[in-house]
Design a protein that fits this description.
2 helices, alpha+beta, single chain, three-stranded mixed sheet, 53% helix
Length: 93
């Protein structure tokens, strides 16, 4: 009971001073990290799709070579069908 009273008092003090409780700050940080990860995944998917559109990602031939204009090799596909790519060389314009 005493512990509950202390927690209530600390929450009241935090609300008066404008500071957030550690639990609130931690949950907000976790939510922000989750959102950043989702944005990163979306950006990575878009990047891989753009590589395909430009012809810079290709699967290796039976001999194991890539076309000369390819900079990335397709290593597999994710569950949603998005290709997983790995950089193998740079273009020299």
């Amino acid at each position: 009971m005493m512990k509950k009273k202390i927690e209530q008092d600390s929450q009241k003090a935090a609300s008066r001073t404008g500071t957030k409780s550690p639990e609130t700050a931690a949950s907000q940080k976790a939510a922000a990290d989750h959102q950043a990860a989702a944005n990163c995944d979306a950006a990575a998917d878009r990047f891989a799709k753009d590589l395909l559109v430009r012809g810079e990602a290709a699967e290796p031939t039976q001999e194991g070579t890539l076309p000369l204009d390819a900079t990335h090799v397709i290593t597999g596909k994710k569950e949603d069908g998005t290709p997983e790519v790995k950089r193998v060389r740079y273009k020299a314009f």
